[in-house]
Specification:
- It contains four helices and 28 strands.
- It has a 23-stranded mixed β-sheet that branches. The protein has a three-stranded antiparallel β-sheet with strand order 21-28-27, with no helix packed on it. A two-stranded antiparallel ribbon has the order 24-25.
- The chain is globular, with a radius of gyration of 22 Å.
- It starts with a helix and ends in a 5-residue tail after the last helix.
Length: 312
Amino acid sequence: MTEIGDSAAVLSRSILEETESLVRLHSGQELTGGILPRKGGEQHRMVRIGASSAVHGSVVGKNVIIESAEKILLSNGQLAPGTEIQGSINSLGDVNVGNGIWIQGGIIAEGDVIIDPVELDSDSPGHILIEGGVAGRNVTIGDGAVILGPVLALDSCVIGKNVTVRDTVAANNVTIGDGCMVGGLQADLTLNVGELVTIASSHILIPSNGDKVSINGPIRSPYPGCNSCPYDSFFESEMKVARKLACHMHAERSGDSIMPGSCDSWTPFPIDDVKGHLILENFHVVSHIPKDAVNTRIYGAETTLWERGGEA
C-alpha cells in the first residue's frame, strides 16, 4: 500500500471504532452515512458519539451516548460548531444527550432519555436543538433545550427551566419548570408546573385527582388575552405569533432566573374553576372555550392560531 493509502487507512480506523458490542465515533470527526446495523444483532451494540462530531444519517443502537461538545478547532482553524446528527436516534435501551448538540430528527428509546442542560457560560458550543419528537420510558430534559416536536413518556417527563417544546407533552407524571413554553399538555396521574409557563393550546388535560396537581403560578393561555395584545405593533412581522409565544413581556430570563415581564394583560388557564372543566374519566379538560359550547368552530381561528405557532 502507498504512503497515502497507509495514512488513509489509519485515519479511517481513527474515525470510527467498531466491535461486537460497541461503536465509537471519535471527537471532531465526520462520518458519511449513519450508524446502522448491517446484520442481525448489531442493533444491540452501544453507540458512543464523541464531542463535536458530525453523523450524516441516523443512529441505531442499544444505549446511545452523545457527548457534550468541546472547544475543538477544525483543520481550517475555525471552531467546531458542536455535534450534528443529520437523522434520528433510535435506541433499544437508554439515550444520553450532552449539550452543544443539533439532532435533525427525533429521539425514540425503549428506555430512558436524558438530555443535559444548555451550557451558556462556556466558550464551547452549549446549545441543544432537536428537530423532532422525543419519546421514551422516562424523559428528562435539561434547562434551555429546544424540542421541535412532541415529548412523550410512558411513565414520567421532567422538563427543566426555559425549555421550548413545540408540540404536546404527554406522560403519566409531568413536571414542567419555570419559564417554559410547550405546545400542549396531557398529564395522567400527577402534574407539577413552575412559574411563568406558557401552553400554546386551547385546552390542557390535567389529572382528575386535584390532590395530584401542583401549580406554582398561573399558566399563560395565549387565547384569548394575546389575541388582543396591547403591544401588538411591537411584534408586527412575519414571525408575530412565534414572537408572542416567546414573549419577553410575559417572562424574561435574568441569569439563571426567570423573571416576570411588564405585561399583565395575558390570561391564565382557569385551573381553579372546576365547575367550568369538562370532566372525563381520567382527566379534567381545562379551557377558555365553554364546556357546553355547541359550535366550537367559532373559536377555531383565534385558538388554532397559537397551536400552529404561526405556521400557515
